Amino acid sequence: MSLRPRTDSVSGTRGSIETGSLPAQIHRALEEAIIAGELSPGSRVLPDEIAESYGVSRIPVREALSSLHEAGWIDIRPRYGAYVRARSRTEVAQLFEARAGIESELARLAAARGDDQAFTRLRASVARTARAAKKSDTHELGAAAVEFNAALRAAAGNHVLAGLSLTLEKRARFYFSPIASALGEEWVEGQTRLLKLLELRDADAAARSARRHIVETGEAVSRLLPSDAFTD
Predict the structure, then answer these.
(1) pLDDT tens profile 139-153
(2) What is the pTM (predicted TM-score) of this model?
(3) Complete DSSP assignment for 90-106
């Protein structure tokens, strides 16, 4: 399914459904569209259009919208419909504060537990970020950031922290996706600095570096997103 935003609704072209739970697949497709900005904050989500684009009934669509509401991606307003959630300065502050703590601990563990294979994967991710930054490729920068964070989680070897990190990362992407091209050089610097400390097995310094990287990204989001992008 290919989703394209309109001024007040979700529309798309008919696509196929892969094997598995229909509600879960629709949830993932819409979640990614929201994160990537294909569905803009405040836009209305119309179940009939989604069902038509997938060629399914409204039942799995309603289930997907319900789970998206529970996950905080959309607001369901009785008698008014479903809308993509708005951005909030309060959430930005709290979100990146939480991420800073989790990512710093992941970096500490990665410095202690990471092996050559893990560091090779991280180096490849940093190189990808650098290439994308030179081209100011917003989509590729976002993909490279996801890749780097996944590699760091794998190196840390803690599934509980990894799950928390992934959840917060998705929420963070909702905020930084529109301005990723402006953050590219800063990300290259931050990732490179962290990688060197990981390779040196300096756990404490790596933790501080990861925290600094997340905090700086949060500050940049608040500074670079226009004021009218937020509801508070």
Answers:
(1) 899 999 999 999 999
(2) 0.83
(3) HHHHHHHHHHHHHHHHH
